[in-house]
Design goal:
Largest sheet: 2 strands, antiparallel
InterPro entries: SusD-like (IPR024302), TPR-like_helical_dom_sf (IPR011990)
CATH topology of the largest domain: Serine Threonine Protein Phosphatase 5, Tetratricopeptide repeat
Number of domains: 2
Radius of gyration: 23 Å
Strand order of the largest sheet: 1-3
Number of helices: 22
Keywords: Lipoprotein, Signal
CATH architecture of the largest domain: Alpha Horseshoe
Pfam families: SusD-like
Strand content: under 5%
Protein name: Susd and RagB outer membrane lipoprotein
Organism: Pseudozobellia thermophila
Order of helices and strands: HHHHHHEHHHHHHEHEHHEHHHHHHH
């Protein structure tokens, strides 16, 4: 409640400002700018809102990246089932969300903080900027970052320019944070780490490792340099689930729960059913709720969970509503109070892949892989991690949609790799194990899961059943998956010259089947 008060007070102060405010319009009952400066309120009030907007709403994530990563699927045939999830772009709002609600206020708060010499607030805002655009660029490719705020339509950065800027900014951010670990000024505005600057440094360093691995096929030398820098930095990396970077929901309901339980617009995916049931993964009980109608799971009644195929044939919404919802605990704001942006399991899986690639300081691939799985089981309160990691026989199952006759929406599982580590296996087999487990552990934060699928080809996801792509937004061939989102219409209409420049830096047409820079399509090793 205090954070909302800060925001309200800030808006009052800003809206009341005129050139001669102090001399002619002083109101003894109104909070002054000088009063707001007490306890850093005039800068700190921006941060809860900026952080809250790192995740969008239904059309930004659930009907885009969450579907493309194949964690959740929708029962609803929106727009006669011709929409984002079937590769016809209908909603495309993430760009505006990040610029209007993060980049713009970040610019303002940085100017205020710089004027008052609050370097930690400056770099905290810069870290949020890096996080925002490093996520959004995985949708679009080139974006406005180093030129943001310029008059007359800022030009886009190419993806190599973006990542060079991210790493350069992280150098400065981490250095400043490391030098000020005893600073306490953030505490009233930081619902994630309670103002612990050392924890923010640890997150920033872990973010560097994420970004380094993302570009490993496009620029392996830079990836190795930046990855090894993260592995050696005195800030350290996330080590336990206590280090996880979680966003406070500030008393609001977890938005996917609203989509699932209030609107009945999302359910478990068929891919989750195939992988979790096949691997006999106990995290399924924390992720989803079982079905009540056992006829839906006659092929595996001991694991009574049923998902919807992504990009599936959908006729009527009611057809698939009896399928598994997300776990009902997500619907209770007193039980689910945060949403993760990065968790320690991801760091362990990054280190496992780094070890395969021979990066100094990465440690042992198997030890990191198994630590990642155990950390994910611990996070979700799941039992049986040791037995799970020893299983060298179970594989994901084939999927059957029991609602429609024939083979509509059915698919044959393509994954033949088991969970148990095999030190004698080649690096490709080991990488598939790492990324498949990383995909499972990414549940509720699907952006990196979609990144990894495009970057590595793992997990071996099924194709969409109904591909509605066409020349309007680009055609995705029947044996491929969507690669990116096009630049939004708001940019095409308001910033056409910059969009044209951005397209020239994209490496292909502004279409959904154009690969991003780091998605080379080449071999993993």
């Amino acid at each position: 409640m205090k954070k909302y008060l800060y925001i309200s007070l800030l808006l009052i102060a800003v809206s009341a400002c005129t050139d001669d405010f102090e001399e002619t319009n002083t109101n003894p009952y109104e909070i002054s700018t000088e009063s707001l400066k007490q306890d850093f309120n005039h800068v700190g009030a921006f941060y809860p809102s900026m952080l809250s907007n790192l995740f969008g709403i239904q059309i930004d994530h659930n009907l885009a990246v969450t579907s493309y990563a194949q964690h959740l699927a929708q029962p609803t045939p929106f727009v006669s089932n011709v929409n984002n999830t079937t590769y016809y772009i209908t909603w495309n709002r993430l760009w505006d969300l990040q610029y209007d609600n993060i980049m713009a206020p970040a610019k303002q708060v940085i100017e205020l903080a710089e004027a008052d010499g609050y370097n930690i607030f400056v770099e905290w805002a810069n870290l949020i900027r890096v996080l925002s655009i490093s996520r959004a660029t995985t949708y679009y490719g080139p974006m406005i970052y180093t030129n943001y705020g310029q008059e007359g339509g800022a030009l886009y950065d190419s993806e190599p320019e973006l990542y060079a800027a991210f790493f350069s900014d992280l150098d400065r951010i981490i250095s400043v944070l490391n030098a000020n670990t005893d600073y306490t000024g953030l505490s009233d505005f930081d619902a994630s780490y309670g103002g612990d600057v050392a924890m923010w440094a640890k997150f920033a360093n872990s973010l560097r490792l994420r970004l380094a691995m993302r570009i490993v096929k496009a620029d392996p030398a830079l990836a190795k340099t930046e990855g090894e820098k993260a592995l050696a930095d005195p800030a350290g990396l996330m080590e336990t689930n206590a280090d996880n970077f979680n966003l406070s929901l500030y008393g609001n309901k977890f938005h996917p729960a609203q989509i699932c339980f209030e609107w009945n617009d999302t359910r478990m995916s068929a891919t989750m059913e195939s992988i979790l049931v096949g691997y006999q993964d106990n995290r399924i009980h924390a992720f989803f709720d079982p079905v009540e109608d056992m006829s839906l799971v006659s092929d595996h009644p001991e694991w009574p969970y049923k998902g919807i195929r992504n990009g599936g044939e959908l006729i009527a919404k009611d057809d698939h509503l009896p399928f598994s919802t997300i776990d009902e605990d997500f619907n209770d704001p007193s039980k689910v109070t945060t949403r993760k942006i990065m968790s320690v399991d991801e760091v362990f899986f990054l280190k496992a892949e780094a070890a395969l690639r021979g990066w100094t300081g990465a440690g042992d691939a198997q030890a990191n892989y198994e630590a990642g799985v155990k950390a994910s089981f611990e996070l979700w309160g799941a039992t049986g991690a040791d037995a799970y990691l020893a299983d060298n026989t179970s594989i994901p199952i084939d999927y059957d949609d029991p609602v429609y006759e024939g083979a509509v929406n059915d698919f044959t599982n393509r994954i033949t790799n088991t969970v148990a580590w095999d030190e004698a296996a080649d690096n490709e087999t080991k990488l598939e194990k790492i990324i498949t487990q990383k995909w499972i552990a990414a549940y509720t934060n699907e952006m990196e899961a979609w990144v990894d699928f495009r970057r590595t080809g793992y997990p071996k996801l099924p194709l969409v059943y109904f591909n509605a792509s066409n020349a309007d937004w680009g055609i995705v061939p029947a044996d491929e998956w969507i690669k990116r989102m096009p630049f939004p219409n708001s940019e095409r209409e308001n910033n056409p010259a910059s969009v044209a420049d951005g397209v020239s830096k994209l490496g292909g047409p502004d279409e959904i089947n154009t690969r991003l820079w780091w998605d080379t399509g080449g071999p993993n090793f």
